[in-house]
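=== RUN LOG ===
request id: a7f3
mode: sequence -> structure
chains: 1
length: 605
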Amino acid sequence: MDPLSDGRTRRNRGRRNRGRRDRTRRDPSRQWPRPSAASAAGLLASPRWRGALAVLAGALPALAFPAPSLWWFAYVALVPWILLARSADTGRRAALDGWLGGLGFMVAVHHWLLPSLHVFTLVIAALLGLLWAPWGWLVRRLMGGAPTPGRTAAALVVLPSGWLMVELVRSWEGLGGPWGLLGSSQWQVEPALRLMSVGGVWLVSALIVTLNTAVAALVAARARQARVPLPARAARTSRPSPTSHPSLTSRPSRTSRTAAARAVPATAGLVAVAAAATSAWAWAPSPEPAGRMRVAVVQPGVMDGAGSADRRLAREEELTRGLAGQDLDLVVWGESSVGYDLAERPDVARRIAALSREVGADVLVNVDARRSDKTGIFKSSVLVGPEGPTAGDRYDKMRLVPFGEYVPARSLLGWATSVGKAAGEDRRRGERPVVMKVGGGLKVGPLVCFESAFPDMSRHLTREGAQLLLAQSSTSTFQSSWAPEQHASLAAVRAAETGRPMVHATLTGVSAVYGPRGERVGAPLSTSASSTATYDIPLAKGVTPYVRLGDWPVHAALGVLALLCAAEGVRSLRGPARGRLRQPAPEPREPHARTAHGSPAHPGR
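=== RESULT ===
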């Protein structure tokens, strides 16, 4: 090619590019589109994307629990979910956001069940997620559109109450039990543990939801306040003239002023929660010291395959013999530590009794076997002393794990055994809790497996005089998941609620001990350990407000929701549309701005 013509071509191309850039500067519509609120609104309007966002938003709070244990994240984890539900265009859509968020939450906190129950885990999560549908509707009802200060203040009380109702209903053992209660994510936060002694885990759950609601209200108010008023926008796009009125560019819009006013209840709510939490923390009585107790935990480790029951028992005996001479009050084995009924295998009972004599302490074992009287399979905590099993000191597990230890409505849901590891035969239930005496008359209250998740069970044992709470567990099926650490953390919550120390002893880890304030005692045994650990456990006396008063936050929440229903009923009768609830008021629009020449401004045209 001719060099001269090639140079002319490059110069012409440069002129065309410069002309294109000049035209782009003069005409903003030629520029590439930028992300805007309109595109975000379009994303939320898409049912597919909105549903996915709801599931993701609902799953976020799971990060506050062990193993991630980002406890601080709980105080803002619900904000995306709340903001999504409040943006729904209808109450039905908000209820759907609540359901899908609940589905995401239940899958996230129970994801470790997937290898055992497979697709049935999703079915259960979808059914339990329906409990959050009314909560999602309430979010839009109280925070949707342009909420008034009164509705914002009501949301700070009603939304935590609605959340507690969800936690209360799903805490029924037939629905899986109280695994993943929001307040239990604060198991290592001392002020939160102190509050649990006042109102249990329920009080902390309510405070967390209140804080999330206040933050969400502030975010929504800030978003409204930060919107650039159309008069100011028009003033920037046109050159000011002497005839333009200064109020068009300097006076705050009415929307900005009302948005700031709506932020007042949310800010007041944050201050009120902080003040109430501080007052309760300062007022709550501290447990009074009442001596110490020396307890050893025996953790044999994972034993799989044929003959695992015999190998586990042999390893437990070996580990227990190594505890001789340590001046122990009690030795605790994990759940299913003995696979034989001691009445049917007296030789095994004699071997454990010999261990008790050798170490100088009673041994609390857990028998998972069919009874010799043919009444079925029980999981039982059995206290074995130097002379053998102690008469009357046997506790049969009362609350069984759905699908893990029995299949609800087996005639209808028995197919779950074909798609996962559901129980092939139902375990039998115990009839009553038991407080046992060990050593020099110290009283201990045993629980088995996920019974440590139920606040009422440890509270009942404390009222019956238990000085030490015990949980015998086995999480061998879920070793590589978040389940072992999350299960062990529940012992800290139960200890703080009752003012009694608690031992969490497992076959395969995590085994841990917590003092009467919920503080950790000694080092835990990890899931990789096959060992023993000895703990000097501080005892306490006295009764915490939670043990004395019970689940009063739940009762207060019921009262709040009852008042809400009554108020809505009265309002619907007085309203213009009889029997219908008033919908959230739409957010006021900005008035049309005018340019300096007095014509309406239409940005973007």
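=== NOTES ===
The chain is about 50% helix and 15% strand.
The CA atoms of residues 194 and 282 lie 9 Å apart.
=== END ===
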